[in-house]
Amino acid sequence: MTPDTIIGRGESDIPCSIKTLYRLIKDDDRFNVEDLPMQGKRKPNHHQEKRGKQAFRHGIKDREKDHPNYKQEFGHLEGDTIVGKNHKSCVITLVETLSKCIISLQPEGRKAEDILKRLDEWLQEVPRYLFKSIIFDCGKEFSMWKEISNPHDIDIYFADPGTPSQRGLNEHSNGLLRRDGLPKQTDFNELDEEFIQAVSHRRNRIPRKSLNYRTPLEVFLEHVSQAMHGSDIVSV
Fold first, then answer.
1. Do the Cβ atoms of 140 and 126 come closer than 8 Å?
2. Contact 91, 103 (CB under 8 A)
3. What pLDDT, on the 0 to 100 scale, is given for residue 168?
4. Per CATH, is 60-230 categorized as 3.30.420.10?
């Protein structure tokens, strides 16, 4: 292995966007776009999101007003679901934005009631007030957000329709989970939650350059320890 092949050495900035880079690779016969994480796929220009919108929901701009320091503050989550085979099952994924730690949960089904039940169970297991906010996409599976927000005193927001970049960390993490053991066409009803969580735990133990080569789990636990000893957090 030569020094230039080691990650972190010989790096240089590429003066173009990711979309432009994908187009360049697509036009080059030396590369196969299907080997890339996005497989060359992107939404067409002028794409409009047609999924239902949440009534009286709080948007991403509301989060910026309520939590102006959310980018530097521990306890803010990005959430989504990974949908399984024939859209009959799913996995709830949450990512803590400061530590990049991934949390995966298995609901009984894909309905809003199923998502509510599993999130409620999980939030009862974690220290109260540890997490300050969650931002979801506009999927109907999160339509019962008030039943999560009010009892657990956690702020819930929604990204603008058709803008997954507003939850970019969660979207990227979902791609990693699919690659690591939860691929498309998986029937999650045939898996147990222990296996699903093992996939995210494995990813959480990989050092990240953006974390100064610490693991997401190390950073997460450090912040949890600080929060537990430096505030009035009460365990439920």
1. no
2. no
3. 94
4. yes
Three-class SS state of 1: coil
pTM (two decimals): 0.75
CA atoms within 13 A on the CB side of 195: 10
DSSP string, 198-224: HHHHHHHTS-BGGGTTB-HHHHHHHHH
Joined together, the tokens standing for residue 191 give 């898996």
One-letter amino acid of 60 = I
pLDDT at residue 66 in the model: 94
d(CA 144, CA 148): 7
For the chain, residues with pLDDT lower than 70 are: 1-19, 21-31, 33-56, 230-236
Phi, psi of 71 (to 5 degrees): -75, -25
Q: Helices 168-180 & 193-204, crossing angle to 10 degrees?
A: 110
Cβ-contact 37, 171 below 8 angstroms: no
Quote the tokens at residue 166: 């507003």
Q: Give the chain's end-to-end CA distance (angstroms, integer).
A: 52
Q: Is 37 exposed, middle or buried (0-12, 13-18, 19+ CB in 10 A)?
A: exposed
Query: Where in the chain are the domains?
Result: 16-42, 60-230
| pLDDT at 27 (0 to 100) | 67
